[in-house]
Amino acid sequence: MKILSIRNLKKYFPIRSGVFLQVSGWVRALENVNMDISQGETIGIVGESGCGKSTLGRTMVKIYEPTVGSITYCDPSGEIHDVSRNIDRRVEPTFRKDVQMIFQNPFDSLDPRMTIRDTIREPLETHRLFASRKMMDERIAELLMKVGLYPEYAQRYPHEFSGGQRQRIAIARSISVNPRLLICDEPTSALDVSVQSQIINLLKDIQRDTNMSLIFISHNLDVVHHMSDRIMVMYLGNVVESAPATELFDHPAHPYTQALMSAIPSWNPKDRKLGQVKLEGEPPSPINPPTGCPFHPRCPHRLEICRRVKPEAAEVGEGHSSACHLHSV
Amino acid sequence: MTDSERILTVLNLKTYFGTPEGIVRAVDDVSFHLDRGEVLALVGESGCGKSVTAHSILGLIKAPPAKVAGRIVFGGQDLIGLPEREYRQVRGKQISMIFQEPMSAFDPLYTVGQQLMEVAKAHMPWEESEARERIIDTLKSIHIPEPEKRYDEYPHEMSGGMLQRIMIAMALITSPDIIIADEPTTALDVTIQAQVLNLMQNLQSSYRGSIIFITHDLGTVAEIADRVHVMYAGKIVEKASVVELFDNPLHPYTSGLLTSRVRREYKGQDLPYIEGYVPRAYEFPEGCRFHPRCPKAMEKCKAARPPEFEPAPDHTVACWLFEEGEGR
Predict the structure, then answer these.
(1) Which pLDDT band holds residue B321 (cuts at 50, 70, 90)?
(2) From B199, which residue of chain A is nearest by alpha-carbon distance?
(3) Choosing among A48, A161, A167, A192, which should be mutated to test the B contact, i.e. which has the most B CBs within 10 A?
(4) Strands, DSSP E only, in B20-66?
(5) pLDDT tens digit sequence for A59-101
(6) Distance CA B57, CA B91 (A)
(7) Where are the domains of chain A?
(8) pLDDT of residue B4
(9) pLDDT one-digit tens code per residue, B257-301
C-alpha cells in the first residue's frame, strides 16, 4: 500500500526585491519529482547542499505547499486523499499524525524551556490519544525506554543532554503518535561518529517493530546505503538517478552519482583516492540553473545535446532509472 | 627523509577553564611535536580538546581567566607567556589558521580582497599595489577562477567551497611555517571536500610548510595525514603514523572510531558502535577517561590514569592494556 505518492512536484520560492517586494526571480528548488512510498519501505534521498533534498522532505510533511504537482495520501482505511493544497479538515488530523519528521540539529529542534516530558506529551495531547494524564505518562516512560533513555529523564531539560541523547528524544517525540511515515532530515549529521551508529541502529529497530516507512535524507552515501531500500540521487532540484540501494552502488549509471561515489574517502592511507576525483567546479545556483541537463557544466562526459535538451529519466536496469543522454547514444 | 627539522614542540600543555559547573580541563597534559613539511592530524570527537589545543598554540585563549600551562616551543622561544605584541609577529604570519565555517570566518561588510589585504599589510613589507598583485598571484596559485574579479567581491557572493579556498589563500599569503586547519572541510560537500583536500595536498608538496589538520573524520585523515594523534576527553590517547594507525590501531577508542565507519558490508545488520556518550568537560571520569565506555576496561583503569606506552616503534598509546607484560 502506498502511503504517499508524489507526481510532477515542483517547488519554486519567490525572490522578492525592491521597495514593493516585487517578485524578481525564482529559486527552483524542486523540478518534476515523482516518488511513491509504500508501507515499511525506506527511501533514501542523497545529494549535496542545495540540491533540494530537504525541500522535498518538508514539502512531503506539508511545511511547504508545492508550487505545481500533486501529493496523494492513503489513510489507514485505504482511502486516497489529495493533500497537495489545503488538506480536507476531516483528513488533516490523521495525515498530521501519520506523517512525522525528525530534524538535523537536535540542539534546535527541542524547546529549551520544555522538559522532556512536556516535549513528548505535546503531540500526544494534540492528537488526544490518551484519556488520562497517567496513561500519557506511562506512554512517555515506555517511549523513553524504547529509545534507550531512562524514564527518570522525563523531568529534565534538553540542555542536560548530549547531542546523541537529544536526537533520541526527538525520535521519541516523533514516534509517540505511531506515525506510518517518518521523514528523517539528516538525523545523524550533527552527531559524533561514535554516536551516529547508535541512532541509525535505533531507527532501524523501531522500523522493524512498527513497520513504518522512512524517508531518509542525507548527504552521506554510506549511511543512506545502509538505511535504504531505494535511493534517489538529487542534483539541483532534479532526481537524476533512482535505484535499489545495492544496485545503485554496484552500477551507478549517472555521471553525477559516479562522481559522488568517487568522492567518498577511501579510509585507506595506502590507497588515497581524492586526488583522482575528476569533478570540477561547484553546483550552479538554482536561481539560474543551466539549460539542458542540470549537471552538464560539470560533467566529464558531456555531449553537445546536453547543453540544449534536458534528459528524461530512462530505465537502465530493473527498477533503476537515470536521466542522462549517454544512455540513449 | 632523514633531515626532519622540528619546528614545533608542545610539552605538557594544559588549558583549563573555570566554569560554574567546575574546572574544565579541556586540554590536559598534551605533548607532541611537528616536523617541517609534514601533516599532523589531531582526531577526536566534539569536546575532545582538539580545537582548544589549536587555539592555545595561537595564543587565542585569554589567560586569565583561563589557565594555560606547559611549553609551546616554536622558533626557539616559548610561546606561552609571550607578550601580545610579540605574539602578533607569530600569529597569522608564521603560524596561520584556517577555520571550519568559511561563511562566518569572513566579515560580511568587507570584500574578500580587503580582508586579504589586511593580512598582507599587518605582516608583510609590501606596497599596496605589490600586495594586491601578490594576493592575486596566491589566488591564482590555488586555481581560483577570475581572481581579479573575486578580489572585489563580498563573502556572500561566493559559495562555501570558494570561500574556504580564499581562506586557504589568506593563510598562505605570509608563507607561514605552520598552517593549523580546524575542520577545514567539515562544512563542505563531498565533491568540494575532495577538491579542497586535493588543493591542500598539492600545497603541501610545493611549499614545504607543515599542517596541523584537525578533524573528527578519519576518512579525510586517511587521505591527507602523515602522522595521527587521537584525542579523547582532553588527552592524546594514541600517536602513530597514518598507515600504522589504520593497520594496527591499539587504543580501544581508536578501534571504536575505526569500526564506527558505516561499511557497505554491514547492510541488513546492526552497525557496531561505541557504548555511551562523550563525557562533558566538567565531569571527566577518574582514571582513564575512556573507561566507562571501554569494552576492555579493567579495575585498574577506574583508579589510575594510564601513562604513554610505546608497544611498537613510533607508536604510543595511553592505555593500561599495553603496560609491560600485558597481552594485547
Answers:
(1) very high
(2) A275
(3) A192
(4) 22-35, 39-43
(5) 999 999 999 999 999 999 999 999 999 899 999 999 999 999 9
(6) 9
(7) 254-329
(8) 72
(9) 999 888 888 988 999 988 888 888 888 899 999 999 999 999 999
Interface predicted TM-score (ipTM): 0.82
Q: For residue B167, what are the CA distances in angstroms to A246, B89, B118, B200, B235?
A: 39, 19, 13, 12, 29
Say if A127 is an interface residue toward chain B (CB within 8 Å).
no
The Cα diameter of chain B in Å comes to 67
For residue B30, the 8-state DSSP code is E
- The predicted model scores a pTM of 0.87
Residues of chain A contacting B218 with CB distance shorter than 8 Å: 193, 267
A155 touches chain B (CB under 8 A): no
Residue B3 has a pLDDT of 56
For the record, the C-alpha cell of A102 comes out as: 525528525
CB contact under 8 A, B273 and A164: no
Grid coordinates representing A20? 514593493
B263 to chain A: which residues are within 8 Å by CB? 222
Phi, psi of B157 (to 5 degrees): -85, 0
Residue A317 burial (CB count, 10 A): 14
The DSSP-derived string for A59-105 is: HHTTSS--SEEEEEEE-TTS-EEE-SSSPPTTTHHHHHHHEEEE-S-
Instruction: List the 199-258 stretch of B: residues with Cβ below 8 A of A.
Output: 201, 216-220, 222-223, 225, 242-243, 246, 256-257
Tell me whether A195 touches chain B (CB under 8 Å): yes
Query: Judging by DSSP bridges, how do beta strands A80-82 and A99-102 pair with one another?
Result: unpaired
Indicate if the pLDDT at residue B34 is higher than 50.
Answer: yes
